[in-house]
Amino acid sequence: MRQSFLQQLGFLSALLWLIFGQLACNDVIEPSAETPQPSVLTYWNQHDSAYYTGKESCRDCHYNNYLTYHQTGMGKSFGRANPQKSASVIGPDSVIYNPFRNFWYQPFWKDTVLMVKEFRLEGKDTIYQRIEKVDYIVGSGHHTNSHIFTINGYAYQIPFTFYTQQQRFDLPPGFEGTANTRFSRYLGLECISCHNNLPTLVLGSQNKYTHIPLGIDCERCHGPGSVHVNLTKRGVMMDTAAGPDLGIVNPARLPKNLQNDICSRCHLQGTMVLKNGKSFYDFRPGLPLTDFMDVFMPVYEGGTPTLIMASHFERMAESACYRKTNGDLSCIQCHNPHITVKQTDPKRYNKVCTDCHNHPKEIHSTETASRPDLGNCVDCHMIKRDSRDIPHVLITDHKITLPDPKIPTPQVFRGLVAVNNRKTDRFTMGRGYLREYETFEPNPIYLDSAAAYLLPVTKKTDKIHFKEFVHYFFLTKNHRAIRKLVENNDPDKILNEWLVVQDYENDDAWAAYRIGQAYESDGYLKKAIRFYHQATTLAPFHLEMLNKLGSALVLSDSLPQARKIFAYVIAEYPRNERAWVNIGYCELQLGNVSSAQKSFEMALSLNPDNVQALVNLAGLHRAAGQHDKAVSYLQRAIRIDPQDKQVATLRKALRI
Question: What is the enclosing helix (H) or strand (E) of 156?
Fold first, then answer.
């Protein structure tokens, strides 16, 4: 006989300490014990002892939802690169050309393995090529398929995307024109944790993972499953007719603002500013998103309405339906997350509208409202638009408007707004402007606004604000202000007490790195190295910070130490062209000419336009009396950057 809900609740409360004490974790993510607790703790799986068990643990009891969910866009969001996952139609003519960088890209299948070839032509001859294996495909295929490769756990984006609506290949968003970063765009936790389930990021890295799951799964909306699974295995069942199962979040039982927070975690794309001590791992369903982050978006007055791909909540929140009901509208009123949009009956959407707009005068088309087979409200009031951040796609605009509204012009920038938290504090506003400048658009107005919010807030000697002032002065290239800030607060204290935390965002490491750069730029090399050492101690897998430390050691004539660092970077990630150039320079200075030449050539095999490698090879061959080879390498460097000082010096020496 089943226990009553109250009997079960009393039993579970007594048992809860034992369950939490027995939890074990295999390839799962657990927040740090030092992470401050959220302001609300309603469900037991919001406790930091609860852990993720994976979608397979849901299958046996929730089989139908498991099957249908895996046909949704979220369920198909991320997977291994194979013919079953790929939406691409690849043939001999599936090529992409980037005229600004003069590179071609051609995806192809090698049996069932997806590959991509980057190459350059001179006439009809291929003068350069690089081939990489694709490991993962991002995107359900409804709009796009983009591609990722990993080496030793380091994840980077591959420069080709298939746009399914137009059935065409092109560069990925953000790679257009001169912005083509080829194979060097790293994929950090912020990116992958929205396009996929939560991966396991190596602490002290920006893009090294020990585990990358496949697809957004059940626990992103329901929270960690360990409590619910353990109780179920023990035969402890909750009577959900009498109340919620406190071991697992059911979003349908949440208030609408908390329902929307679950969706907004990924469907509110913008500049995300984490609260102090938080990471992208910490948010759990049923908790207020504002306890973990504020998401900023630029606001404009007038102009044609524009939207970004994942701006669903932002656009919905601009709707009169949302504003006039004080937010009494949630995503899951229209969307059943377990069922794909393609299989959702339009009557479901219409009912949400007609539940409020049930008076004939409020219905734009009484015929459509009474005859859903003729159409639905969405067709006119949530039209499909171009996305300003993703080319070649049309997406449904979730701002509910009258058909073809007249839009005033011109468009005027009014500032940033924290879409999920209109009551954010001034200091967080300043942080938002700094990140908007650094991440999306280096517009000087953002730095001016950051100063207006940051500078009056508090003394710059406060530990909690120190890093943001370093960040501000760094972006404004005010190295003297950074040095003054550090000296006024005692460098030893900063290194031993203030910048000592290792976290997933590498906040303290970044502050130490920026201070190091400020000292190096002003010629204080020994002080710079101290802070670079601190940065790489906190972030030992951040390859560019390691390269910077190694370069500073080269300048200080510590060649053996520098060489060791560059060798470590190459062992971690053999595709790091900068490390190959740097270690080649060390080898050359140490008299190992053959090893130096091989290192420079390796750098060019990764990037034929690496000017430093070309100059070094030109100088190496000139020293060996091989004039023609020296000229050949230098001419390539001249075509890329004729204004480079080393190029100009060597050009005079070779008389070309």
Answer: strand 154-163
Q: Where are the alpha helices (DSSP H) in 142-278?
A: 189-195, 219-222, 226-233, 256-267
DSSP 8-state secondary structure symbol assigned to residue 74: T
User: Does residue 555 have a pLDDT over 60?
Assistant: yes
Q: What is the DSSP string of 365-393?
A: -HHHHH-GGG--HHHHHS-EEE-SSSTT-
One-letter amino acid identity for 644? D
Lookup: tokens for 127: 């003068």
Tell me what pLDDT residue 77 has: 95
Closest CA relative to residue 297, chosen from 446, 454, 474, 473: 446
Span 596-615, average pLDDT: 98
Give the max Cα distance, the chain: 96
Q: Where is average pLDDT lowest: 82-96, 172-186, 190-204, 445-459?
A: 445-459
Average pLDDT over the chain reads: 89
DSSP secondary structure of 292-361: TEEEEEEEEESSS----TT-HHHHHHTSHHHHTTTS---HHHH--TTS-GGGS-HHHHHHHHHTT--SGG
Tokens (6 digits) for 296: 């900023």
Query: Does the CA dihedral 328-330-332-335 come out positive or negative?
Result: positive
Q: Residues 6 or more apart from 161 whose CB is under 8 A from it? A: 144, 145, 146, 147, 169, 170, 171, 172, 173
**Residues across the chain:** 656
Q: pLDDT tens across 284-313, in order?
A: 999 999 999 999 999 887 765 678 888 899
Whether 538 shows a pLDDT value over 70: the answer reads: yes
> 413: how many CB neighbours lie within 10 A of its CB?
13
The model's pTM: 0.90
Q: What is the pLDDT of residues 202-219, one digit of tens each?
A: 999 999 999 999 999 999
CA 571 to each of CA 131, 541, 543, 567, 612: distance values in angstroms, whole numbers, following the listed order = 20, 11, 11, 6, 21
Spatial distance between the Cα atoms of 201 and 194, rounded to a whole number of angstroms: 14
Q: Nearest Cα to 92, choosing from 22, 169, 154?
A: 169
Where do the structural domains in the chain lie, given as residue ranges? 1-75+216-249, 78-211
Give the residue, 420 or 9, on which the prediction is more confident: 420
Share of the chain above pLDDT 90, in %: 76
**Is-contact 479 522, C-beta < 8 A?**
yes
